[in-house]
Amino acid sequence: MLYHLGKAILNHESLAYKACLMYCINPASVFFSVAYSESMFAWITFTGMQRFDGNTRNGSFWFAVTTSIRANGLINMGYLWHRKLGEYIRLVPGLRGLSLKDKIMVGNVVFWMICTIPLVLYSILCIAPFLLVQYFAYTQFCTGNKADGIPQNILEYGTARGYTIMGVGPPPLWCKWTIPLSYSHVQNSHWDVGFLRYFEVKQVPNFLLASPMIVICMLTALRYISKNLKYSITLGLGRKSYIHKKSDASVPDLKDTGFDSEKCLPYVLHMLAMVIFGFFFMHIQVVTRFIASSCPVIYWYVAMVTSSQEELEEKQTNRYNIFAQVKDKQQSDLQEPEESAFDNLLTRQLRNIHNNSFSINLILLYFSIYFIIGTVLHCNFLPWT
């Protein structure tokens, strides 16, 4: 799905292909290989993004599914808000020539019909799974349910460690909150998540562990913003996609192909929001998989900076296996489905690191080392990202 999303947004098949290869060895790869929620969350998230590119309603449905898997799927609503606000702003010039009274009346109608009502409905759809889970927790812990069916050893284990067990003792304090969210209680009381709470000397190793991913995110944003400065400052709002005034020399044309494509901006904004929130509020070591499972733009960026223009101009995929290298159409028609599956842009770079630049090797080493060490540590029940 990341491949199809990349083709739709980048309009560049080879770059989308290379991004998929980088995803396969991403620094949090072990969490995408074991029985964990990250792989499903990533698949649903990328599916939602790909569907949302063509259909707001379809994409919103998939974003709703992400919130049923992980709470951070709520951030995907930012794509919806960005699109609807942009649609409204682009309609404002159409009010020119009307009287002030008519502008106010027509503007309000347009705002509610085009922006507000659909935005509210789609937002409710996206947030509904999260609220249903919170409601279920409320009914279990706050309405006097008894601890029927809970094995005695589980009760003893939880009681000895001070856990809140439904039907045992008084209802937890969060039940009396104005908005009783068990999620907020768990994050605050059990995970100690909050603004700057992780900024302690003893957490320096974890900050170092997450620093490569944070640096990549910052470089991704800087690269895109530097190439599309005026467009980025306006958050991509107010101008119609792919329609540019050729007479305005002060506004450079935006590309519709590659990493500099204007369609990449919402993904850059999404990544920035997540990395800033993760840096200041979360357990910092989690940022690596937090970003790896949610932000396709980092794969597009590293695919671009680790590939030459000549490599990206080659045909890279075939009808059997998008990860199999194809050098020409005739070979594509004759080869077996799995032929050349281990001969692609990434494997050639890994085999010939002496031919790569220092920056390319640095990225490849980061991905590869975290891929290997993460697998070893996680399989031995040791902490990792």
From TrEMBL:
Function summary: Mannosyltransferase involved in glycosylphosphatidylinositol-anchor biosynthesis.
Swiss-Prot/TrEMBL keywords: Endoplasmic reticulum, Glycosyltransferase, GPI-anchor biosynthesis, Membrane, Transferase, Transmembrane, Transmembrane helix
A molecular function GO annotation: alpha-1,6-mannosyltransferase activity
Top-tier EC class: transferase
Taxonomic lineage: Eukaryota, Metazoa, Spiralia, Lophotrochozoa, Annelida
Protein name per UniProt: GPI mannosyltransferase 2
Family according to the record: Belongs to the PIGV family.
GO annotation terms (biological process): GPI anchor biosynthetic process
Domain of life: Eukaryota
Parts of the chain that traverse the membrane: 21-46, 61-81, 109-131, 207-225, 264-284, 358-377
Main location: endoplasmic reticulum
Enzyme Commission number(s): 2.4.1.-
Compartments, record wording: Endoplasmic reticulum membrane
Membrane topology designation: Multi-pass membrane protein
Pathway listed: Glycolipid biosynthesis; glycosylphosphatidylinositol-anchor biosynthesis
Pfam families associated with the record: Mannosyl_trans2
